[in-house]
Design goal:
Distance between the termini: 32 Å
Oligomer: single chain
Largest sheet: none
Radius of gyration: 16 Å
CATH class: Mainly Alpha
CATH topology: de novo design (two linked rop proteins)
CATH superfamily: 23S rRNA-intervening sequence
Order of helices and strands: HHHHH
Length: about 120
């Protein structure tokens, strides 16, 4: 089965992945150096991989190859959730301070982690 290669931008899941990546980037750039250098880089990479894997899968020649990349995108989504949880666990007081100071306005990590 041949897959239309340019259609990934129309996929709702791809649009959501792009929106999430933008939100994560916006949040991470406000973090202190240590948080940004450790968890921040990891969560940005994982989040960017969601859309990248969807895109790459759509560029493959078969449904089977596309499905493999969709599964990798799902893995990247799970990894993103892991890193957000890690940030919340290790930086709980900083997260609360950032919220109090309105430094984390575009992302609500807890809502991203709910199923």
């Amino acid at each position: 089965m041949q897959i239309e290669r340019s259609s990934f931008k129309r996929l709702r899941v791809y649009q959501l992945a792009e929106k999430l990546a933008d939100q994560i980037w916006s949040a991470v750039v406000t973090w202190d150096f240590f948080a940004k250098d450790t968890v921040g880089k990891q969560v940005v990479r994982a989040t960017d991989s969601i859309g990248a894997n969807i895109t790459e899968g759509m560029g493959r020649r078969s449904f089977v190859e596309n499905r493999r990349f969709v599964r990798m995108a799902r893995g990247s989504s799970n990894e993103t959730r892991h890193w957000l949880n890690a940030y919340l666990r290790s930086m709980g007081e900083i997260v609360q301070r950032d919220r109090d100071e309105n430094r984390w306005p575009k992302i609500r990590a807890r809502s991203l982690l709910s199923d």
